[in-house]
Structure prediction request, 255 residues.
Amino acid sequence: MHTQLGSAGSAATGTAAGLNSMMRKGKMQEEPINVIAFCGDGGGVDMGLSALSAALQHDEYNLLIICYDNESYANTDIQASGSTPWGANTTFSPPGTAIRNMNTRWKKNMVPMLAAGHPECRYLATACGSYGLDMTNKVRRALTIGGPTFIHSIDPCPKGWDYDPKFSHELGMLSIETGLWVLYEIIDGELLLNGPSKAIPKGMRRRKPVDEYLSRQGRFAHFTPEDTKYVQDKVDEMWERWWGPAIMPVNIKEE
Prediction:
């Protein structure tokens, strides 16, 4: 089904409920059916957040919601969303001489927000298509663990991010290698770091400077060294506060 923008959670809940009802009434064969709903960051992180939250409350239904996050309202010509990075150039936040950075909000942190608000949700995760096996495994876990589940995937966008499409895979990897995007799962309340992200807190891997990621995209072409330093400092603070070995909101385990 192709539903209205912002209704991925409602559509997933309604579809799962309808299938359960048909099976219960004997109108279709009783069997496990995967209900998967896709939303973008505009339709999920912003306007569809309430429907997504409501879907995660229905633990009687098995469903998966995947947020395809290209960090803008790309369908309507790259407007800023709650998932747009600080300082990024969009049609709603163009850089100017008077105000260089119109978008001064940090990217909305969806998975921890949903985990805190829905502690009964058995599976939430982040992903990136550049790490295909990791993403495939997460989809499999989400579909087999039971109940409503959610995966937030970062997805490079050549038009919105302003780069040559052939670098999509590389930029996805850089978003993680610089620490701007963290790969992890929350399974029954326990946090597990995945891929390159799990090696960083243990000192097994060094994060790359964020400039290696930002400088490859035209949406950050207006950045000054001070802007890049601001982003780097925020990422460093995030890792020290949340992902470092000393101060953790929940217990980190190896896969």
Notes: Residues 225-243 form the longest helix (19 residues). The first strand starts at residue 36 and ends at 40.
